[in-house]
Design goal:
Shape: globular
Largest sheet: 5 strands, mixed
Number of helices: 2
Structural class: alpha+beta
Number of strands: 5
Strand content: 25-35%
Order of helices and strands: EHEHEEE
Radius of gyration: 12 Å
Distance between the termini: 42 Å
């Protein structure tokens, strides 16, 4: 298992119950982290979209995570 520290913004902060969480994932890809997050926090599945940023850039599910990466959940944003 790999352990990742994940920062939350917007509605994801409410779902996770704080600004940050630690998640264990079976692998080292963004997709595997996303799966672990959805298992730990099922309410995330209700979001229209959920982007994951790694080191200040949006990441694809196939992206490989490294120890110490800055990981953030970017919820859907609405504007006017």
């Amino acid at each position: 298992m790999n352990t990742f520290r994940v920062r939350a913004f917007g509605i994801t902060k409410d779902i996770l119950g704080g600004k940050e969480t630690v998640v264990e994932a079976s692998g080292k890809t963004v997709g595997e982290l996303r799966t672990a997050l959805l298992e730990k926090y099922p309410k995330l599945t209700g979001l229209r979209s959920l982007l994951i940023a790694v080191n200040n850039s949006y990441a694809e599910d196939a992206s490989i995570l490294s120890e110490g990466d800055e990981i953030a959940l970017i919820p859907p944003v609405s504007g006017g």
